[in-house]
Amino acid sequence: MQILGIETSCDETAAAVVEDGTNVLSNVISSQIKIHQKTQGVVPEVAARQHILKIIPVIDKALKNAKTSLQKIDAIAVTQNPGLISSLLVGTNTASTLALLTKKPLIPIHHIEGHIYANFLDRVLKDIRFPILILTVSGGHNDLILMKNHNKFELLGETIDDAAGEAFDKVAKILGLPYPGGPEISKIALKGDPNKYDLPRPMLNSKNMDFSFSGLKTAVLYLTKKQKKLTQKVKADIAASFQEAVCDVLTAKLLKASQKFNPKEIHLAGGVSANQRLREMVAEKISQLPDPRPILRHPNKMIYCTDNAAMVAGAAYFKYQQSPSKFKQWKNVIANCDYRLL
Ligand code: KG4
Ligand code: ZN
Fold first, then answer.
1. Which residue, of 33, 81, 289, 340, is most buried by count of CB atoms within 10 Å of its CB?
2. Is the CB of 114 under 6 A from ligand 1?
């Protein structure tokens, strides 16, 4: 089954064709990063205008690269929520129109569902075993989710304020680094000392599995203001110490959940799952667990960590398989900001 996926929830206009949930035939992403760097963050109105300019050429390219056509694909999938409403509307309206014209099924996808299924892309389906414990870490979300089977999610914990990626972006801004902050922080952190500054590890020992990163961000702000001179070395040390604190908290909560639920696999998903230090720290902690240890996976390609439409088309396949009759109507999709996955 070939599904055309469309993703416009934030600042990437993306379309992809995926076969049977895992086989990526094309994956086209038009990034708006250069535009948003001028304002050091996304201005929703600007993002939506860019989506309008790019959505048709991007879909066209995705179909061409996959050597298929609108007539040949079996269904259309689109990110419906959460995200910037004006950006979501571009993707959902385009998808509804295409579904109406072609009479193909239309499958609405939750953005986090997409990130979760990014770990299935370019993988052999029967190798992946449930239950899976998932840490979704991106710009807008930070969740711990137990996936008992396809489409069966239990939310174990979430951020009570900033998401991890959001904290990376804000700290980058404090240090005068460009948007998006995650890749920039991790790049300069390589030259810094992660133990130089003793930054807080918010909620590290709390009983629940929730996260909080806004206090850590404020601690970085005060630390930065205290510096006589913000040299490259000082910036690198702050970045490394900050990254270490974030990774410590994420890893500790993930391992705590793993000990409680004994998953067969642990998956990292979302933009921050591209972070090498996080991958390294989680892998090290898992290696210290008693046998049988969960298998650790992160998206097979870096491009599947951040926003893309292959993950949307992938998630849609499993949703459609469960109840095909639910997705016949082109009216199925309503862009909204609802964050709840369950
Ligand atoms: O999943 P994503 O593309 O968009 C949302 O759904 O929000 O995640 C984007 C976030 C940004 O905050 C970005 O700074 C962060 O992922 N990010 C990283 C890295 N690459 C992207 N954070 C830390 N280390 C990275 N290497
Ligand atoms: Zn995302």
1. 81
2. no
Cβ–ligand 1 distance for 87 under 6 Å, the answer: no
- Measured in angstroms, how far is the CA atom of residue 230 from the centroid of ligand 2? 32
pLDDT in tens, 132-154: 999 999 998 899 999 999 999 99
Q: Is the CB of 299 under 6 A from ligand 1?
A: no
Task: Report the distance separating Cα 13 and Cα 4, nearest Å.
Answer: 14
Instruction: Tell whether ligand 1 has an atom less than 6 A from the beta carbon of residue 307.
Output: yes
Pocket flag, ligand 1, residue 181 (CB < 6 Å): yes
The reply to whether the predicted model has a pTM over 0.85 is yes
The DSSP H or E segment spanning 47 is helix 44-65
Kindly report the length of the chain. 342
Q: Give the CATH fold of the 2-118+303-327 domain.
A: Nucleotidyltransferase; domain 5 (3.30.420)
Distance CA 307, CA 303 (A): 8
Q: Where are the domains of the chain?
A: 2-118+303-327, 130-299
Contact 158, 145 (CB under 8 A): no
Residue nearest to atom 22 of ligand 1 (CA): 182
Please tell me if the CB atom of residue 27 comes closer than 6 angstroms to any atom of ligand 1: no
Nearest alpha carbon, ligand 1 atom 21: 271
- pLDDT score for 342: 58
State yes or no: pLDDT of 332 exceeds 90: no
To the nearest 10 degrees (0 to 180), the angle between helices 232-261 and 164-174 is 170
Is the backbone peptide bond immediately before 299 cis, with ω within 30 degrees of 0?
Answer: no
Which of these CATH numbers, 3.30.420.140, 3.30.420.40, 3.30.450.20, 3.40.1130.10, describes 130-299? 3.30.420.40
Atom 16 in ligand 1: residue holding the nearest Cα: 271
pLDDT (tens digit, 9 = 90+) per residue, 243-293?
Answer: 999 999 999 999 999 999 999 999 999 999 999 999 999 999 999 999 999
